[in-house]
Design a protein that fits this description.
heterodimer, A: about 290 residues, mainly alpha, Four Helix Bundle (Hemerythrin (Met), subunit A), three-stranded antiparallel beta sheet, 9 helices, 3 strands, globular, B: about 160 residues, 2 helices, about 95% helix, about 0% strand, transport (chain B), ATP synthase subunit b (chain B), proton-transporting ATPase activity, rotational mechanism (chain B)
Chain lengths: ~290, ~160
């Protein structure tokens, strides 16, 4: 249930959708934002500490686990951990081999990192929605903070900063390899000389430009939208708690059902992000005629 | 929910993770997978070779066994022949020896008989002489009738 009974449903939802933002407020100076409005007023030069913390924590976990296996990797009989890692690496490699026709040693590790990292970040959604924020609020309350103003979002992929960060990096890589493989002229030509030939240049540029720019946008918004909606449903289900036995049981059942379904969504979204990245990079490597 | 500095921080974090993964995670695992693949291929080829060699060995063993059987049969045949020969030889030897012994015994008997006859003759002559001597002692002069007696003795 909400951190306090005095909260309204709207306040509860709002509380869950606000990041722990650290920045310089024009009136209150440097510090954590006490409301979503304050966070907005901090403008661009603020940082979402919760997103950073959880994403880096999960990324480091991924790196430590995989590095630990890679250090002791053997071509002989694999142990349990190596078996698991090999299963994932094999899966990713198979996808890269299936969709990526050129040769680039970056694509495999990139796909693996995206898949594992996005999956882990999405996985945070399966932790009961109030658990970590509540414990964190209580912890900070010990130090004299007001739990109502302590925000924490544990799923980094529900923060557009995280999804757009990855999508933009992928976009830059697409641009880099487009220019590297086809040269500046080839890339510009690809943007302007098709599909209507050189007399339809403005229309070509418009169409190709939109198609190019929609890549990172769709990549980021798809993941963000899915995870945001998923978390929103968990929050709405959590609103049922505390309303009597029937509502509690209904809420418990709904949460279980949605969590089971969500296992599919988080895996699927990680997979889609990975596959689209591979496909976009493959398109960047290919010469069009 | 605001786009802020987190965006850049996330991009840097993402790049760092990808870089680390590319440098320290991906290559060893993929290499190990490739190495295992070749190992398995080699193992399968070796197994196939072993299979063929086993078949060849079995064939060779069968041939050797057949040969050994033939040789053994030959040896047994020779041995049987030899045994029959030995038995025959022994029989012949025994027969010869028996004949020889019989002949020797017959000769001995002959000799003994002759000797006994000779002895008997001499003794009869002596007896006859003694008897004649006793009968004629008084009427016959030994010297006068010696040739007569001797003739008689010779006829015995």
């Amino acid at each position: 249930m909400a951190a306090s009974e005095t909260l309204t449903s709207q306040g509860y939802i709002q509380h869950h959708l606000t990041n722990l933002t650290l920045g310089v407020h024009p009136e209150h100076g440097f510090g954590f934002a006490h409301s979503s409005a304050e966070a907005a007023e901090m403008g661009f030069w603020a940082i979402n500490v919760d997103t950073m913390f959880f994403s880096i924590l999960l990324g480091v976990l991924f790196i430590i686990f995989f590095r630990g296996v890679a250090e002791k990797v053997t071509a002989g009989v694999p142990g349990a951990a190596q078996n698991f890692v090999e299963w994932i690496v094999d899966f990713v490699e198979e996808n890269v081999r299936g969709s990526f026709t050129a040769k680039n040693p970056l694509v495999g590790p990139l796909a693996l990192t995206i898949f594992a990292w996005v999956f882990l970040m999405n996985l945070m959604d399966l932790i009961p929605v109030d658990l970590i924020p509540y414990l964190f609020g209580q912890l900070l309350a010990v130090f004299g903070a007001d739990p109502h103003h302590v925000f924490l979002r544990v799923v980094p992929t529900t923060d557009p900063n995280a999804t757009f960060g990855m999508a933009l990096m992928v976009f830059f890589m697409v641009l880099y390899y487009s220019v590297k493989m086809k040269g500046v002229g080839g890339f510009v030509g690809e943007l302007t000389l098709q599909p209507f030939g050189k007399w339809g240049m403005p229309a070509n540029l418009l169409l190709e430009g939109i198609s190019l720019l929609s890549k990172p946008l769709s990549l980021a918004l798809r993941l963000f939208g899915n995870m945001y909606a998923g978390e929103m449903i968990f929050i709405l289900i959590a609103l049922l708690y505390g309303g009597g036995v029937v509502l509690n049981l209904t809420g418990g059942l709904l949460q279980f059902v949605w969590a089971v379904f969500h296992i599919l969504i988080i895996t699927l979204q990680a997979f889609i992000f990975m596959v689209l990245t591979i496909v976009y990079l493959d398109m960047a490597h290919q010469e069009h005629h | 929910m605001n786009i802020n500095l987190t965006l850049f921080a996330q991009m840097i974090a993402f790049a760092a993770f990808v870089w680390f993964c590319m440098k320290y995670v991906w290559p060893p695992i993929v290499n190990a997978l490739a190495e295992r693949k070749t190992k398995i291929a080699e193992g399968l080829a070796a197994a196939e070779r072993g299979h063929q060699e086993k078949a060849l060995g079995e064939q060779r063993a069968l041939e050797l066994m057949k040969e050994a059987k033939v040789t053994a049969a030959e040896i047994v045949g020779q041995a049987q022949k030899r045994a029959t020969e030995i038995v025959e030889e022994a029989k012949t030897d025994a027969r010869t020896e028996g004949d020889r012994l019989v002949l020797a015994a017959q000769a001995e008997i002959e000799r003994e008989t002759n000797r006994a006859r000779e002895e008997l003759r001499e003794r009869v002559a002596a007896l006859a002489m003694a008897a004649a001597e006793k009968i004629l002692q008084k009427e016959i002069n030994l010297d006068a009738h010696r040739s007569l007696v001797n003739d008689f003795a010779k006829q015995l």
